[in-house]
Amino acid sequence: TGSNIDRDMTVLLLPLQERASLVALLVFIGGLSAATAMVIVVSVALAIMISNHIVMPLLLRGRGVAPDPDRATAAWARGRSANGSTGGDLGSQVVHIRRGAIIAVILLGYAYYRASGEAALVSIGLLSFAATAQIAPAFFGGLIWRRGTALGAVVGLGAGLLTWLYTLLMPSIAQPGGFWSDIVQNGPLGIGLLRPEALFGVTLPSLPHGVLWSLSVNLACYVGFSLMRPASAMERLQANAFIDSDRATMAQSFSLWRSSVTAAELQSTIGRYLGLERTQRAFEGFAQSRGEELNGAREADIHMLRFGEHLLSSAIGAASSRLVLSLLLRRRNLSTEAAFKLLDDASAALQYNRDILQNGLDHAGQGITVLDRDLRLLAWNKAFIQLYGLPPSLVRFGTGIDEVVRYNAARGAYGEGAQDELMAARLESLVNDREPVRLKLYPSKKVIEIRSNPLPDGGLVTTYTDITDSVVAEEELERTNETLEGRVAERTEELQRVNTELQRAKAEADDANASKTRFLAAASHDILQPLNAARLYASALVERDRAANRPDLAENIDASLDAVEEILTALLEISRLDGGALKPEISTFRLDELMRQLQREFEPSAQEKSLTLVFSPTSATIRSDRRLLRRLLQNLVSNAIKYTPNGKVLVGCRRRGEQVAIQVLDTGLGIHASKQKIVFREFLRLDPGAKVARGLGLGLSIVERIARTLDHKLTLSSTPGRGTRFSLLVPTAAQMPAATASAPRRLPSGGQLSGLKILAIDNEPSILDGMRLLLGGWGCTVATASGLDEALSLMDAGLSPDVVIADYHLDEGDGLASIASLRKRAGAGLPAILLTADRSPEMREAAAALDVHVLNKPLKPGALRALLAQWRATRLAAE
After folding, report:
1. What distance in Å separates the CA atoms of residue 87 and residue 277, rounded to the nearest whole number?
2. I need a surface site. Which of 220, 421, 446, 840 has the fewest CB within 10 A?
3. 608, 637 in Cβ contact below 8 A?
4. SS3 for 746?
5. Sign for the pseudo-dihedral over CA of 410, 413, 419, 424
6. Whole-angstrom Cα distance, residue 210 to residue 867?
7. For the residues of 451-493, what is the DSSP string, one character each?
8. What is the C-alpha separation between 770 and 540, in angstroms, rounded?
9. In which element (H, E) is residue 856 found?
10. Which residues contact 607 (CB under 8 A, 6 or more apart)?
């Protein structure tokens, strides 16, 4: 067990340990068969390579292989080989060589085994790969480096193999205590820097160390010896064939090449290695594939030679087959007559190609010249002569381009100036300019575009293009552009003037709009001030007349004031909506709270007309402006009640995905389809509705503007005589818990406010008189002041008010500043009410910041009385 067991014998020892002799026998036979097969395959493969690439080339170089032509032709005719045998006289030699190679390979392998021992068997594969890698520098260098030579490849390969032997093979076969072991441990002659496994002090693992040094020495020798001498002609041809040759050109050259070797000679040579019958069948198949008849006396072309080379390489390898055919071709020297015939054929082919090239050049639309490195003409076309108007006698093969330039300069084709300077400038431009150059010729005024490009081996190829028409078009276009620029400048100046006028007009319109807004803001206060006073007087009169059981006169006055208030409020709302002064304050709230408020507000009106008003319950939570949405729904419900003579009005909700549709339906008069688009216009009232109820025609106009401001989609559907449905789409929000429903508050009576001390501040005496009459009728003690100074004087005299009611617009300062000053005197908890006609969000925010309650003008007495009663109840509860 453990380390005492040979790992190679583990599979055999396991069944023996279990006394399974049969299994051990089968394992032994299988292992022996595998090892034997491996030895056979490797031996045969190596023997074939040694025979094809080493022995046979050496043997062939020492003897002739080409048969006599007459004997070869006669042998082909009678179906025999040139020496009269049918099996090939060299075939037996190849067989004997390969058998000897097999024996030599086996003996060398056994010798290595005896020298290295069993320990080195595991690394033999890596050592072999390291040796094979020595081919890499010469192989890849021959593909990519033109300067590589056979001498460099041979020396590099030999040096690399020697280094591999020293750094890898010798340490692997060195036995402890032996001669090689001492060299591995201490280096030759005790020189430590030359130790095989640490050469020159480089310490790496054994395999990377050996591969690095062997390939480095190989590459250095390959490059160094290749640079020591110039490459031979054959080496240059081979380099061109692998690096940057034009294979099409090579194939064209081969098509003109003639070998003088006949098909019979080629078959006879190959038959000596393959046998006549096999060779005959192969060549007959080749001729049949090309659609030709096999003729032994016919010269073998390049295609037949290639086929013969491939056929022969299957027997003796590529290197030997190439060598056999090269020896065959070398012995077939051309006769003088054949050489002249070949030269004539080559000359004819060159002339034919030259004619084709010249014909193509002459049919080109551009002038073309090809110059050698000395700037002499090698090729040109007719267009070049015609563009410059040159005499044919001047343009000849070998003529220097300077002669053409001198001729043009002498006749003034380049314009006025010194002839030498013009010539020098033209030659300089021709040789050095790589960008297109335009040249104007005189007196024809032709414009020629010249492009010059260098050739790889020196010289120039130049094209000459007549661009006269294009230049004339460019000049015309440039003149047009100059005119166009003037027109564009004029149009631009005019456009700037118009834009300036538009900006001035817009500024005037903005100023007018701002003036209108300021006027409406000021007018709303001035208009609502006397209206507010009338409201106060009327409310006081109503209170007194009710006590005397004669409310008719006061109630008529109050109704008239309500109508005036409705007109002014609607006009102000439309003005603010159109001017963009009304900004929505979006918040999240439950819709049922708003519905309950609307139901309490409109139930009395519905009961007066004996209508059924139904608000469907809902739990939806929405995102909108609570105040504007309530105003919109107030107008819709109010209109529904007004224009429904009998029946019912239904307010409900339907969910539409992420939105909820708030719908107001009635069973009233309905709206004809042709009138539904104009029903939202200002001051427009349809005939049936105008007879049923009074109105201004502003309610739906306000509804449409509020819906547009809130970005809520409003739709209308109606059937005349059956009713109308308005639907408003509002976005939903996350569900909020329901608020506890509070019982409806009872309108407080005047007795609940008895003894409440109120300080009223306003700069209008009529407002103060009306406030005194109204609040006094509710049992309140009222003190009035026209401004802050008077109010402070009253407090200095001992007045301690429970509530302060102040107008926003005062002669000095405003109501918020006055309330702040009074709170400094009476305490921060003094309740305060601000009366104003300003409905802007900014004013409300300022009041909210001071905890001041806002009531809009004209004042609604019910809202004021409810607020005062709430504060009175809170105060009594605190006491």
Report:
1. 8
2. 421
3. no
4. coil
5. negative
6. 106
7. EEEE-TTS-EEEEEEE-HHHHHHHHHHHHHHHHHHHHHHHHHH
8. 8
9. strand 853-856
10. none
Mean pLDDT over each residue of the chain, to the nearest integer:
77
Give the span between the Cα atoms of 668 and 689, in whole angstroms: 10
Given 3-state DSSP classes, what are the helix, strand and coil percentages for the chain, each rounded to the nearest 5? 60, 10, 25
Per-residue confidence at 653, pLDDT binned at 50, 70, 90? very high
Query: 3-class DSSP state for residue 551?
Result: coil
Q: What is the share, in percent, of the chain residues with pLDDT greater than 70?
A: 74
For the CA atoms of the chain, what is the radius of gyration? 59
Question: Mean pLDDT over residues 838-847, rounded?
Answer: 82
CA–CA separation, 461 and 79 (whole Å): 59
Q: Which is it for strands 659-666 and 447-454: parallel, antiparallel or unpaired?
A: unpaired
Q: What are phi and psi of 680, to 5 degrees?
A: -90, 5
Structure tokens at 734: 């996350």
> What's the per-residue H, E or C state across 690-705?
HHHCCCCCCHHHHHHH
In this structure, are residues 568 and 524 in contact, taking their beta carbons and an 8 Å threshold? Answer: yes
Question: Residues 599, 563: contact at Cβ < 8 Å?
Answer: no
Q: Report phi then psi at 756, rounded to 5.
A: -75, 125
- What are the two backbone dihedrals, phi and then psi, of residue 143, each rounded to the nearest 5 degrees? -85, -30
* Residues 56-93: tens digit of each pLDDT: 777 766 655 444 444 444 444 444 444 434 444 566 77
Q: Which two tokens stand for residue 792?
A: 């402070």
Owner of token pair 């004087």: 793
Which pTM does this prediction carry?
A: 0.36
Which range has the top average pLDDT, 241-255, 315-329, 503-517, 766-780?
766-780
319 has pLDDT over 50: yes
Is pLDDT at 562 greater than 70 in this prediction? no
Q: What would the two tokens of residue 737 be?
A: 């818990």
In order of their start, the domains of the chain are: 1-120+246-333 (no CATH), 146-242 (no CATH), 364-466 (3.30.450.20), 583-731 (3.30.565.10), 750-878 (3.40.50.2300)
One DSSP character per residue, 172-208 reads HHPPTTSHHHHHHHH-GGG-GGG-TTSGGG----HHH
